């Protein structure tokens, strides 16, 4: 099996978690990492076993040995870095949200198609076995007709005006940072876009939202979503039908799901994995690179554009 050489853009927490899981991806090889400071790149390469460490991202993009770039910088840097990587002939796996506007997302999708390169949003949740099992139960009619979808994601994050989460110049706010998860998880199980949106948000002193509730409908399905920097929410997903319901604990990183009929637990699934779960999306990216595909049918360009459209609608109502 030919290994796919990864180049990592950023040495932050998410990049570290992703690289930790690359060890579970048989087709992946951690080849290079780039950071703004050489010392940071060197330390990251030493810790996670990358062959090469670069100061500056363009040097990584220009390395002929890099097959695919993983971008894990703050949201507002995604567009330019993904653009530069594609222009350098690299496939791209970009953290969510892939951009901060519909227009930027559309431009990247068009560029990837023109270049014949893979562009995929790193929505790792879609590739987790527990999510797939919950979808199978739903599609098999195990809970009857879907009536409600409820998803939330929140953790208390201390207010720091210049921190990534709260700084508007770094595309701060809980909607882009955490709200993308409830929206995307809901869309995974729905057949139509969410409309009739109602949004209730709290805005902190830097002008970004630190708590947001989103209500809407998808055809006849009621949708209730939330994200927060203020508190730890349940972080579960609930799919509620007229014959039963499915619970996905910690849905953003799901490792299990449970099926109920009224108050009775009738089925359960656990993937018993030893990884965090990021390697499932890495496996998908490697497969697509090998096949020469420009997009995934699991997280397609259409999905990424839909997420951007939804985020824009919610922002307009805050």
Give a concise summary.
Belongs to the Gfo/Idh/MocA family. With 318 residues, this protein is of the alpha/beta class.
**How would a textbook summarize the main sheet?**
8 strands, mixed
- Judging by the overall fold, what is the CATH architecture of the largest domain? 3-Layer(aba) Sandwich
User: Uncertain spans, ≥5 residues at pLDDT below 50?
Assistant: none
Structure classification: alpha/beta
Radius of gyration: 19 Å
Overall pLDDT: 97
Distance between the termini: 49 Å
Helix content: 25-40%
- How many individual domains? 2
Name the shape in a single word.
globular
Kindly report the spatial arrangement of strands forming the biggest sheet: 8-9-10-7-11-12-13-14
In CATH terms, the superfamily of the largest domain is NAD(P)-binding Rossmann-like Domain
Tally of DSSP β-strands: 14
Topology order in helix (H) and strand (E) letters:
EHEHEHEHEHEHEHEEEEEEEHH
Q: How large is the count of helical segments?
A: 9
Strand content: 25-35%
**What's the level 1 CATH class of the largest domain?**
Alpha Beta
CATH topology category name of the largest domain: Rossmann fold
């Amino acid at each position: 099996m030919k290994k796919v050489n990864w180049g990592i853009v950023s040495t932050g927490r998410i990049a570290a978690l992703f690289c930790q899981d690359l060890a579970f991806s048989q087709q992946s090889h951690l080849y290079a990492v780039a950071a703004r400071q050489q010392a940071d790149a060197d330390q990251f390469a030493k810790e996670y076993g990358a062959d090469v460490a670069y100061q500056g991202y363009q040097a990584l993009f220009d390395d002929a040995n890099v097959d695919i770039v993983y971008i894990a910088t703050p949201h507002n840097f995604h567009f330019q870095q993904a653009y530069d990587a594609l222009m350098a002939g690299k496939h791209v796996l970009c953290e969510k949200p892939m951009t901060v506007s519909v227009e930027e997302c559309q431009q990247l999708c068009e560029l990837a198609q023109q270049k014949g390169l893979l562009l995929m949003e790193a929505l790792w949740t879609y590739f987790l076995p527990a999510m797939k099992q919950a979808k199978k139960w739903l599609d098999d009619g195990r809970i009857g007709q879907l009536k409600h979808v409820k998803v939330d994601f929140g953790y208390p994050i201390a207010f720091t005006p210049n921190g990534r989460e709260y700084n508007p110049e770094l595309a701060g706010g809980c909607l882009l940072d955490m709200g993308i998860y409830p929206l995307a998880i809901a869309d995974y199980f729905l057949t139509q876009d969410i409309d009739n949106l109602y949004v209730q948000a709290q805005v902190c002193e830097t002008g970004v939202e630190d708590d947001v509730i989103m209500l809407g409908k998808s055809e006849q399905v009621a949708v209730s979503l939330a994200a927060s920097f203020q508190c730890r929410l349940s972080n579960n997903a609930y799919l509620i039908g007229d014959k039963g319901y499915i619970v996905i604990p910690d849905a953003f990183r799901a490792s299990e799901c449970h099926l109920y009929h009224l108050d009775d637990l009738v089925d359960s699934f656990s993937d018993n994995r030893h990884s965090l779960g990021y390697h499932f999306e890495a496996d998908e990216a490697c497969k697509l690179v090998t096949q020469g595909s420009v997009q995934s049918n699991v997280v397609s360009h259409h999905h990424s554009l839909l997420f951007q459209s939804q985020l824009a609608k919610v922002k307009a109502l805050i």
